[in-house]
Amino acid sequence: MSITLLAIESSCDDTGAAVFRNGQLLSNVVAGQAVHEQYGGVVPELASRAHQQHLLPVVTAALRRAGIEKTDLDAVAVTQGPGLLGSLLVGNLFAKSFALALGKPLLAVNHMRAHILAHFIREPKPAFPFLCLTVSGGHTQLVVVRSALDMEILGQTIDDAAGEAFDKTAKLLGLPYPGGPRLDKLAQTGNPRRFTFPEGALDGYNFSFSGLKTSVLYFLKKETAANPKFVEENLADLCASIQHTIVQTLLKQLKKAAQATGLRQVALAGGVAANSGLRQGLQVLAQQEGWEVFIPDFEFCTDNAAMVGQAALFQYEAGDFASQLTSPDPRLKL
Length: 334
Ligand code: KG4
Ligand code: ZN
Known about the structure:
Mean pLDDT: 96
CATH superfamily of the largest domain: ATPase, nucleotide binding domain
CATH architecture of the largest domain: 2-Layer Sandwich
Strand order of the largest sheet: 3-2-1-4-5
Largest sheet: 5 strands, mixed
Strand content: 15-25%
CATH topology of the largest domain: Nucleotidyltransferase, domain 5
Subcellular location: Cytoplasm
Shape: globular
Enzyme class: transferase
Domain Gcp-like: 24-309
Cofactor: Fe(2+)
Low-confidence stretches: none
Structural class: alpha/beta
Bound molecules: 5'-O-[(R)-(carboxyoxy)(hydroxy)phosphoryl]adenosine, zinc ion
CATH class of the largest domain: Alpha Beta
């Protein structure tokens, strides 16, 4: 589409800005927030303050890298939700003010749809309809994607998200936040069948990961009472076994959903798509089931503004603009 668009993402702890022109991504800038590491999780109040500090430099860098002047922009897009209210407010107020000052339309984007539509930033792109498993620090959703504007949740987590399950169990093992990528790395040299933990695949297509966290907690309490060095001596096997449990849970529901819907294009989205166990498990399952698998580049899996821009382009095409009265919605539904 022949428009120039600025997109802004600020739903959690990453501040992002991206520029598209003629449907092509010209720049995608993300500033993470190291401030949360010392607390072992995202602190909402600190996230809002950091967005406030990062947003202008990030937007300026995105425009500069794209070689675009503010006055070249035809529209401004921003994540409306779901996410942390304070974080969303910073991005929303910035985007609204920017759009208002430029006299250009505003597009309000659903963060979870954006994760899915990240598949359309670069080739290879799935064709509609397809099945998408979105797995991030905040969400676990199994979605039938009929079009860019028509999606249906088949199943989702009833408690912790998959990324949260990785991060929380990693924390129990003493790994620094965010533990998911570290647990993944350690798992690569461990035995995934050494320890057994409860899977979280519920009847139907929903997930539950809180039982895994509790089970790991009590297991470690018991073992370390007998041997204080238990975690240290078994770290790789513990990581591999936890990862195996989470991955098997995800793949079990994905397989059920693909069989029930007859969809053979299967897509992964969200930060946990980086997990090596999930990628390998999915490739094996895809061969057995005859699926075509789609996983975006990592920079488009974790929170970023390019996916927000891509979703906004579909909305622009459909004439789905936001009013200046639009406000962020922390619990925005898909
Ligand atoms: O999509 P994302 O950047 O943020 C949210 O919207 O939540 O996902 C971040 C999540 C974190 O929980 C992080 O630990 C997890 O993705 N993650 C991983 C890996 N890389 C990132 N989890 C397991 N293995 C990985 N390699
Ligand atoms: Zn996200």
